[in-house]
Structures are given as C-alpha cells and as structure tokens.
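Interim report, section 4.2 (structural modelling).
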Amino acid sequence: MIRYPMLTRRLFSAAVLAGATVSARAQTGSDPLPSWKDRAAKDAILKFVRDTTDQSSPNFVPPAERIAEFDQDGTLWVEHPLYTQVVFCLDHVPALVKEKPELGQREPFKAVLSGSRDAIAHLSMREIFEIVLATQSGMTVEAFQDEVGKWLATAKHPRWNRAYTDLAYQPMLEVLQHFRANGYRTFIATGGSAGFVREYADKVYGIPPEQVCGTEQAFRYGYDKDHRPILTREPRLILNNLGAGKLENFWLLYGRRPYAAFGNSSSDDQQMLEYVKAGSGLRLSAVVLHDDAEREYAYGPAQGLPDTTVGTFGQAMYDVAMKQGWVIISMKNDWTRLFPFDA
Amino acid sequence: MIRYPMLTRRLFSAAVLAGATVSARAQTGSDPLPSWKDRAAKDAILKFVRDTTDQSSPNFVPPAERIAEFDQDGTLWVEHPLYTQVVFCLDHVPALVKEKPELGQREPFKAVLSGSRDAIAHLSMREIFEIVLATQSGMTVEAFQDEVGKWLATAKHPRWNRAYTDLAYQPMLEVLQHFRANGYRTFIATGGSAGFVREYADKVYGIPPEQVCGTEQAFRYGYDKDHRPILTREPRLILNNLGAGKLENFWLLYGRRPYAAFGNSSSDDQQMLEYVKAGSGLRLSAVVLHDDAEREYAYGPAQGLPDTTVGTFGQAMYDVAMKQGWVIISMKNDWTRLFPFDA
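Predicted structure of the assembly:
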C-alpha cells in the first residue's frame, strides 16, 4: 500500500472547507485509493477531486453541481465473457420457451437453447435486445425484482466461480467512495437494463436505484385480478443507452452534465467522455484499459480488435483520449488489487 | 401558530432513532408544520412521518426506501389560470413565428398570436403539446436553460403580480422540509417539462434536478461549428407524464414505489395516488382540494366541473379518496398561510 501523507492532508482540508461528508478513512489521514499504484492515473483522480472541492481553487464546483458518472460493464465490474445481464436473460430462455414453445423453433432462441458457446458469442446486438425484451417482459415490476434477486444469489461467474456481485473492481469502489466522501453524487449510466442494475447497485456500489440510468423498457399501469393496481414490464424499448443514447438519456433523466465520467467502451462511452471533457471548468474523463490478461482479460488497443467491437476500447478512442487529455487507467499497471476478495 | 409539544417530542425521538438528519426546527421542538391548522390532514401527515421513521414501529421504513413524490402544478404551486410552463411557451410563440413565419398562418399558433384569452383557454392538450415542442426545440440544452432563467426572472403572475417562483404554497414547502428532515428523499413528478422545472426546483423546493421527473422531449448528441460536442433539444416527445404516464415514468426513472404521494388532479395524479396507497406497509396518499376562491381559486368537487377537466380534482377521484382513506387537504380550512410572502 502506498501512502501520500501530504496529499491526503490537503484533500482532507479541502473536504472540510467544502462542507462535505468526510469518511472515516479520510479522517484518519490514510490513502483514499489504497488499491492504486502511485502513478499518473491515481494522481489525476486525486488532483481532480481536490481541485473541484477546494473553495480557494478556480476550479471549485459547488456541492449541488458535483455529479460523477460511471459506466458499469468493464468499468465498475467484469464484462467478459458476456455482460452479466445477458447471462441472466440467457438463463431465462428455457423457462420462456417452456411457456411459449413456438419461440424454441426460431432464432435467436434456438441458438440459445443449443447451448453452443460459439453461437451465443456471435449473437448480434439486435438479437440480444430481442432476448432481453422477451425474457424481461410480462411480469409485474416486483416479480421481476424477485427473479433478479434470486438469480444473483445463485449464479456464478465461470472463471472465478463467484457471485457476479463479487466481481466489482476494488479500485473503482474506492474511487466511488472517494467522490462521495467529497460531496459528489455518483451515478451509473449503463447499456444494461436499469431495472436489473438497480437490484444490486446500492449493495455493491453504494448507488441508490434512482441514480442508475439504464436501457429500459416501457411500464404499463393496470389492475390485477383482485383489482389492485400494478405496474407491468412491457416488451417495448423506451430508453436505449447504447451509443450516444447513454449521454442523451442521462440528460433526459437528470438534466446535468457530469463533472467526471469513467468508461471503457468506444461504442458506448466515447460520446459521454467527450461531452464531459468539453464542459466548462475542470472536468475528468477517464477510461479503463483492459490490458491484464493474467488477472482479468486483455482487449482493446493492444489487442488489435476493431473499434466497432461492442464493449471494447478501440484504437480510435485511445487516440482521442490521448489528444484530449483523458485519464488512461491500466488495469495491469495501475491497480495493485482487483477484487474485494483479493488478499 | 399551533403547537404540539408532545407530538413534536415523539417525532424528534423517532428521527434520532432512525439516524436521520434532524433540522434545526425539529431540534428546537417547534412545530414542523406551522402554516397548518390543527386538523385531520396535519395530524395524518405528522403521524405518517413519525410511524415510518420510528424503528420500534411495525411501519418503520429503512432510510434507503424513504421516497416521497409530489405533483407540482396545483399541489406545490399555483396552476391557474394556466400552467406556468404553458405561459412560458405562449410567451415564446411570437419569436418562434418571427423565425418561422409560416407557423403564424395556422392553428394553434394563430390563436396564440391573436392574444384572445378565450381562444387560449380552449387550446386542447394536443395543441398545447404542439406549442411546447415547437418552442422548446432546436436549441442546445444550455441555451434553453438560459432562456428559462431569463423568463422566470421577469415574468409575473397576472393576479399577484409576482414572480411565478414566489407562488409555491408555504404549507407544502413545510411538508417537503419535514419529510427531508426525517430522511425522506423528495421527488417531483410533473406533467410539465422536466427541463423547465429543473431550472428552479432546487431554489424553490430544495429538490435537485435529478429528482424531477417530467414530460420530456428527446435530446440529440452532435457537434457545433467549432466541432465541440453539444446536446440539442429535439421536437419529439419521449416521456409523456400525463395520465398513468406519470407513474409509469416515475418507475422508469427511479425504479421505486414511493411511500408517500401528494397530488391534486383526477386526470394526472389518481393513478400514482392509487398505486402508492396500494403498496405494502403504511403509505400516504394526499390530495390538495382547491376550495379557496378568496385566497386562491376554487375548482373541483364543490364546483361541479366534469372529471375530465384537465388539472381538476373531480368528484370521482374524491369518492375514491374517501373510500381508500387518502388525506384530503382543504386549502381553505387546513392552511393558515398560503405563500411565503404572506404575513
């Protein structure tokens, strides 16, 4: 663990001046980012928080404006080999087909039922949306919440054989906490379904459901057989957070440009990162580079994948990031510890 | 001013037990709702907050779940003779027609330009939406914010000759504060445009922009002539908060059923009020009855308006409210003071 006594002391003073809630960790003067190596990325994050919460700084941001946005998959937790929510939906295809046997005769459901890893890996985004809408519709919002909760309690990631909710990155949990300890409100903006992520965001990330902006379906108000009012999930997409949609929908939900944004994907984070960085005053745009094949996965610029590969951080975004001064976070070189369960 | 020493003391204890932030007012033991008469409505609100924040109560609600929803027009501030945001849009029609002269030749813009009060009063909801979309589109989100700010600083309500933002109901401001002092997060769900209400919600109600759920248009990501990324307001409705839409979109944005809801309109609040009241545990649904022709306006059950009149609280909802045990708030009989500027 690396310590920065000077820096932490200044940080603590800034937080007190700003009237922010100061965590026990900050109060003891210890390092707020203990799982980060003493390199440029850590320095840049600490400096940004310090500068924007120090009332004597020209970059001071009033508490009401302190909003930080975080992508989830690949930024806050593992996204390989499949997005967790996609695994949830795939796992629910057999029950769906039992209920509606005609679906089993056609794609993409047939491919899912075949269990072929290769076929599943090659599902298009359109096909994935079809599966998502089919498996996450027709039930009340409470029935869906129960189902997500049950699945999360039992499903395990194939590589680590652990619950998916164990696979949040410890260094990013520290960043979330550090922002909040300095008066920032932290938000998730995800391509995944808001209703899925909201079921664990508070427990895993300390982010309440109302601060999760996701892709989402329509809801329909109606009555059950006992004439009790209910809300039902409908198979109709209202918010699509892919591409520029993530940024557009973030404004739709919250009406603010964040001061800081963390992402990892060329396809779905680049617009948000560019927009945040282009705001007035000091802004932070940061990208997680998956370059750690040993402890996690390696994909992105170093691996020569095309920029259009969903969820990857391609060379073109890397070039923009370098040009605009985004913070590049190397999993391999910046993080001493990956998961909370790591020693 | 009426005081409840016993009740306030119990309330204070409950708040401390719950670990909630306690306002200076609560700490001094004074009445948290000083503009309310000692009648059933006040008692019911105080009892609800006390019961749901007292850890020894079977109706205790954990802090994370404490969400209270408030309609705006007619519930938090004056909605007659026209919704404030509609006045904003009507005031912008001349500039719009100057820019696009062809609009001046056709309805509903022709009616607006005529200045006829009668014609304007008879605009249909579809025509109002057309005017809203036409006047609130094509500019960047920042240009729109500036325009709203400028208008609010100068526009005056015709009856009181005061800024619209002065016309929030003092008793409801006390309710908002009382809920927040007891660990509730307060949200606005409005038929008005989210982007309009967000410009003053924090200043007027203490509600941050991200806790305002409104009707809203689409946003489009793009670049300006200097290749700086921008978000532009588009003339396409994404969220329509009228009718059941208010409840459906509240779930879409926040993924929670509120524990308390305040409204006043048969057309746009009834679904939310029914849904909230039908939740598990103790829930509060409350309606503001506009029965004070002298100090404000009188409309609703006592005035014999049809239930379908937009924005009114009709007889049918009144009957449901009585049957389901909603709290009925009579402006005339429950409120000692109407506006913050009243003596």
